[in-house]
Specification:
Layout lengths: L1 E3 L2 E5 L5 E8 L4 E10 L1 E5 L6 E9 L2 E9 L1
Parallel strand pairs: 1-7
Antiparallel strand pairs: 2-5, 3-4, 3-6, 6-7
């Protein structure tokens, strides 16, 4: 997992980002953002509690989910 205390940088080499969703370990959506067709985005996670989260990035080419750690 990638630890962060404030900002998470999301980037794609191919395609563009359409949306980003962060869910906690219980499956509850804690943050969801629609992105305006950008290839790089900063997501502010400073308001989330410390712990493990899953971030799903949806692009025009598909989606990927990664673990992130909020410190």
């Amino acid at each position: 997992p990638n630890p962060s205390s404030g900002l998470v940088n999301v980037a794609t080499a191919n395609g563009v980002i359409n949306s980003v969703k962060i869910v906690d370990i219980n499956g509850r959506t804690v943050k969801s953002e629609t992105i305006n067709q950008l290839s790089t985005v900063e997501i502010n996670v400073s308001n989330l509690q410390t712990g493990m989260y899953l971030i799903t990035i949806n692009t025009d080419l598909g989606s990927v989910t990664q673990k992130i750690m909020k410190q």
